[in-house]
Amino acid sequence: MLCAPARTRLLPSFSLTTPQPLFRRLNSLVLRRNYQPPIKMSAQHQIVEHVVLFKVKPDVDSSKVAAMLSGLNGLTSLDLTVHLSAGQLLRSRSSSLTFTHMLHSRYRSKEDLREYAAHPEHVRVVTENIKPIIDDIMAVDWISNDASVSPKPGSAMRVSFLKLKENLGENEKARVLEVIGGIKYQFQSIEQLSLGENFSHERAKGYTIASIAVLPGAADLEALDSNAELVKSQKEKVRDSIESVVVVDYVIPPPQVANL
Question: What's the whole-model pTM score?
Fold first, then answer.
């Protein structure tokens, strides 16, 4: 099975000066109808990130892989999800753990993630389309510090999972989080940098820190890598605290279009 307080909905707050109750109700109705609330972080509204990495068996027929991705992307119809995308990785940059495909989804709460995990349609996709064709799986969940909007199709993601060394103190862990969070200010092409500590440990393979850097497109990933000295300097700051890293690149595919 893939994946994890009561659901809260972020509603706009309007201050209307019109004294008449009727006008106030009409204005509020119009505003609510036209308003498209962004996903914002607050004490009452936090976005939960859910990333699953799959390693598809090498001899699997392409039609079965397509069925897996179609089933996963079809889960966008569930009201529980704020954002969901599944597709083939652009590249896997890790030598110790290699994966071929990724699911990225967002939820308004841990409870929504748990409901998604137990939903009959999700369970069906896992049982029928995923388990029979994969060799390995890894899943990490965290509460995001930066998930202001859903990333657009065509956006590129660099997803990183960090396994910290044993017996690392809280100060060292905080330093790792601080350095990773500062990457956004070093690389101006990063539109979002979602970062946090994993709270689901069953399928995380011991990795405890996760991040997603969202960029406009695949070309921006190459530009990120071209600044080798800056990348190296950031890594050196936390190298002594990290045991291993899993890094993958992913481009969000366009939405599925129904065949009529």
Answer: 0.80
